[in-house]
Amino acid sequence: xxxxxxxxxxxxxxxxxxxxxxxxxxxxxxxxxxxxVCANAWARRLGVRTGMRKREALSICPELxxxxxxxxxxxxxxxxxxxxxxxxxxxxxVVEPGRVIFPARGAVRAAGSMxxxxxxxxxxxxxxxxxxxxxxxxxGTLAALLAAQSDVFLDVEGSAQFLKRTKVEGTLVGVVPxxxxxxxxxxxxxxxxxxxxxxxxxxxxxxAMASRFGEMGSLLWQLAxxxxxxxxxxxxxxxxxxxxxxxxxxxxxxxxxxxxARGLAEELVQVMGVRTAASGRLRIDAVFDDGEELSRSWSxxxxxxxxxxxxxxxxxxxxxxxxxxxxxxxMESGAFDIYPEYTGTGWNMVLxxxxxxxxxxFSQLTADYEKAFRMRWVGMxxxxxxxxxxxxxxxxxxxxxxxxxxxxxAAPRLTFGAEYDFYxxxxxxxxxxxxxxxxxxxxxxxxxxxxxxxLADGQVDVMTVFTTxxxxxxxxxxxxxxxxxxxxSYRCGNVVREDVLTRHPELSTVLLSLEGSISDAEMxxxxxxxxxxxxxxxxxxxxxxxxxxxxx
Length: 552
Hints:
Blueprint: E1 2-7, H1 11-18, E2 28-32, E3 35-39, H2 41-45, H3 54-60, E4 65-68, H4 71-77, H5 79-86, E5 93-96, E6 99-103, H6 104-111, H7 114-129, E7 134-139, H8 141-150, H9 156-164, H10 180-192, H11 198-204, H12 206-224, H13 254-272, E8 280-287, E9 293-300, H14 305-320, H15 324-333, E10 338-342, H16 343-350, H17 362-373, E11 375-384, E12 387-392, H18 393-399, H19 407-410, E13 415-418, H20 420-424, H21 429-436, E14 442-445, H22 451-456, E15 462-466, E16 477-479, E17 491-497, H23 498-503, H24 506-512, H25 520-531, H26 537-547
Parallel strand pairs: 2-4, 5-9, 13-14, 13-15
Antiparallel strand pairs: 1-6, 1-7, 2-3, 5-6, 8-9, 10-17, 11-17, 12-15, 12-16
Helix pairs in contact: 1-4, 4-14, 5-7, 6-7, 11-12, 13-14, 25-26
């Protein structure tokens, strides 16, 4: 099937630029656990390359602006590009933030030619999203995605020849973004066997690839042969798995919507069970109270439940326009008067400090907000929604574990579990192990919707959590104390514009009545009531406030 693709080069940097973390005229790079994962054209011209460690990149380019990898930011910011594509194309599937694929025939027919379609898409994306885009087409998934990188339009015969001479390195990996590590390992082994091009790979045959490399080998061979793995809506004939939730009355704000998306995604994960396919398509539909209906399709490349959860949360957040990167500008313009914020987020995303936040910096945080934005922090709720480590209660008792430091002596006999992005973060698993001198017996990549089940079943002994996770309140687990304060603090409080407080001084009294009112455990219990018991957030909050005597 003839497909077309749109690619925005260096998207992680472009997303950081859109979020105000990087200037449009300065060299910049995005860092992951292995070093530089993306650099813009400015940085590449000065010698910065993918895979470089931070120190090496800065030595080559001292003026380099460095930001941490943030897949959520990349996904949310990509919505503006998708809206531009929607103006000209139907049945768009997001392969990953920065790349989409769609059936070419209908869109080309409507535009008059592939050239005309490409020109319209590039212009629309520049106008709406303010970034450069490339467009290409080819027979099958791989040919289309690679064609977009080179701005070429391939027919059936041209696609076959194009793929045959294309180097394997760095090509097939990107087609299954959620399984990059697995695909890269397979291709590295193939390289030792003399497989250098896509043609070399196809010559091995389907049977040889499957028997030697299992399911991943079979998938790579099919991709090399031009298989369509990112299924467009019009090509889907099988009955999918459907999970639906109707809110009466409708949800009133962004945070409620994004919060509810998490529960819906986890419900889907439970329904899927072991039915996770090697690749496929996830469609997310939303109906708003004004009757507007939105739909978006994402590729799920066999990364498991995490793919589903991430994409639901990203997409709903993108539609709703939530998050600090969108709300803070609204505060500055006067569109919003007050919103709940986390101290660590305000420190790094709003004030753009590159150091780790701790509560000893709170006075500086508040002073800088007043000076830069004329906004005040009023009414700190008490809970800290940060990373944490929990241990199965039986394991904690067996090894007498209370703090992260206590893990040092037990770690060689324990299994550690975390979501995939924690292993990829520069400030994640490697840094945690270095800070506390930890060396676990093995590690497990956990799906967010199934992680607590994995802990309960003994598949993992230690795992990362958010300290206000709903399921944490019902888990037979011990929360360890971060005795060296490795994780940054994310205490929640209200940010209010000063002019609003001047006009409504009574507001300070109301907000201060919430000071220290919610502990981590209480926040987790309320989250559990919504996520696991299906209660409405508004009802849970009202009940809590009445019990506390804050609401009569």
